[in-house]
Fold Pyruvate dehydrogenase E1 component subunit alpha.
Amino acid sequence: MAPRKTASVSSRKTAAKPVKKDFNGGTFADFSKDEDLNAYREMLLIRRFEEKAGQLYGMGFIGGFCHLYIGQEAVVVGMQMALKEGDQVITGYRDHGHMLACGMSARGVMAELTGRRGGLSKGKGGSMHMFSKEKHFYGGHGIVGAQVSLGTGLAFANRYRGNDNVSLTYFGDGAANQGQVYESFNMAALWKLPVIYIIENNRYAMGTSVSRASAQTDFSQRGASFNIPGYQVDGMDVRAVKAAADEAVEHCRTGKGPIILEMLTYRYRGHSMSDPAKYRSKDEVQKMRSEHDPIEQVRARLLERKWASEDELKQIDKDVRDVVADSADFAQSDPEPDASELYTDILI
């Protein structure tokens, strides 16, 4: 089911071409047993990691800003399932889930959150600024919308080099109103750059509902004036995300230029750890959890199809919790960076 009610979204059109597929309740990838189990494990890793990060923040081990991805796990996991080696990922500051989905170590991510030497940015970047050249992950960016132009630049580099790699550029419904987004759209459309703009619409940006902040609330159509096609996608169902990702990746690899995927998703926690989220009711959050939770959907499917037993799923959860517990122990015991690190990695 779609996570929010919208007008009919089954057959939207852009100036570029008609959008015939419905990824908001109609078109799903047909997962095998292994694909469902992998999706379950990856989403559960993100969920348990973020829960632990929230605990460590409350205990004072993590300082500064901390934006949790709980509730949105299906988006990044489904997108990653459609990629190949060499494809790039860049996102904003709600980024821990993207790092884990890209294969970056839980130890490295958690240690960066606590500012330790073993962190992926040597303890100097914190929650919003981690990178991995090896995993083709280009951040983690704290400035709202800044990653959109950078992700467009990654796509330009791919086109310049003549490869078939695709840039996945994530941003939220709040960032979708930033001016540099549309400068990027124009450039990407003009030069047919291989970039998928993934708008993670969790409804509330930093705390204001999209209906109060956006004149056009169908974000999949934000590229219409640039002839960029777009889809709305049920971002709470990993199968719908995977199906849309396959379509978008093929669009880019075949030289058709940019495409927009609006992921209709929902964050269970506040914008950041300091946000009490009083702009919505507890009943609304509970309804989303009980009716649309991305992990519970997969869990129910695995049990219904007898692809896994309750005991097997409990073992997966235990294994994931062990990984997360290990990362938390490491992040609390690893030494802090030496003072000399203040002068490294600085461009003059």
Q: What stands out?
A: Residues 1-19 have pLDDT under 50 and may be disordered.
